[in-house]
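Sorry, explain these tokens?

***
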Amino acid sequence: MKTNTGWTAIASLVLMGGLACAQAAETQRLRIVGGLAGVNQYTRQEEPFWSKELPKLTGGKVSAEIVPFDRAGIRGQEMLRLMQLGVVPFGTALLNLSATQEPVFGAPDLAGLNPDMKSVRRTVVAFRPYLEKTLRERGIELLAVYAYPAQVVFCNKPFTSLADLANRRTRTSSPPQADLIEALGGVPVQTGFADIMANMKSGNIECAITGTMSGNTIGLHEVTSHVHSMAINWGLSIFGANAAAWNALPPDVRKVLRDELPKLEQAIWAEAERETGEGIACNTGNSICAEGRRGRMVEVKASPTDDARRRTIFVGTVLARWVHRCGPSCAEVWNRTIGPVVGFEAKVK
């Protein structure tokens, strides 16, 4: 009797183990490289979607492990190449960093192109079909386009317009930003985000282009006095998958991602718009500031003169230099995607 009971128990354990293995075999685990660490796009949107929402949406069939790209030992400039090779099966690439290798991908977020959220939304809609087609030809499936909050100008001395940036040393993070500052008569200083405060305190820079809220987070409102609310650019990024990794997913899983990632995209854009306003409110000490630290900065609002100057500099300098770096084929892409929507033609000399 004992022997029979023993064999029954063993058989039960074997059966349970087999079922557990079968369930484990059915569960797919995705490896995701997300956006920048520490920002709300990642902590409030990306990370919860992949680690919590996706398992629920798939009934436990799929789980995901996500890590921000700047903590994954990956250079942003290499992300698209690593996705193409399959080293990163699912990844997030900042377009301005990718543009160092593929200049055409910098088109929708050139400095001075999109002064407000309405503008950048319109630009992305115009460029997206080309971006999707081109990435697919290179073995990458485009699944979402994200935006960070507006990048704006902070200065440690009073100014009333963009023209006042002449002769000021201003932190920039990309060639198009440097082109814009140079055209304004300023002195662009390439500076990493982590080095902004040290350079401001040492006097190496007098102004800095960075996000409205990220500037507040690092304490920029404590060492600067004025902030211009016109967006210089937005830090667009794309989320995509290596084609082989994407096609290897079961059709029902692909459908879930096709249905749900647009919702994540919308949430991230809403976060970027909200945080842009929140950053200005906190830096200027407005009572609606809820999450940042309240400063006492003066907001410099864009005047019609500023907007006219932006448009002139964009066409004559930023766009022209981008075409020079990128080549005639990029001008052709611009003129059939973004150009007709914004009214700026790219000319090849």
Remarks:
- The first helix runs from residue 2 to 26.
- Residues 33 and 69 are 6 Å apart (CA to CA).
- Confidence is low (pLDDT under 50) at residues 1-25.
